[in-house]
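Justification of resources, computational component.

The compute hours requested in this renewal are based largely on the per-chain cost of generating structure records like the one below. Each record pairs the submitted sequence with a full structure-token output. That output is archived, and it is also reused by downstream analysis tasks.
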Amino acid sequence: MKSAWLRGLPLLLLLLGAVWAGSSLPAGDDGRPSGAEVYRRTRRGVAWVLSPDTGRGTGWVLDRPRRLLVTCAHVVGDNQTVDVVFPVRQDDGAVVADRAYYFEHMADLRVHGRVLKSRPGVDLALVELESLPDGVAALPLADDGARPGDRVHV
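The structure output for this chain reads:
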């Protein structure tokens, strides 16, 4: 029997267009948040998703208590599991940007995830993570959906 959460996935997929429109972000000269500000505000909920074969991409935390992450179906492919790596922060709060650091420490940094649902037609997948590192935050959905002409960041 499917859980209510999985039955509601199609609705979730429609809502993804409304992911955090940024209404609470400081506006730039044109009234819109800068790309740098969007990055700063969302990086605590974004991760690198690695599937056992060649799939690589990003994902974002939808629900911290349930440890749910959304990524692309083409990233997970036909795999039932993926590894997820969240950005590491230095003592001053800056993100470690050296890619070699992540490869060197991969065994300690990766979080295993189980693919709950994948919808190739809309290129979205839902992953349940075994755990979440401290400091990871869910990205809230916007109150309203994006409309034609709205700026969105992916």
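The two ends are 33 Å apart (CA to CA). Residues 1-25 have pLDDT under 50 and may be disordered.
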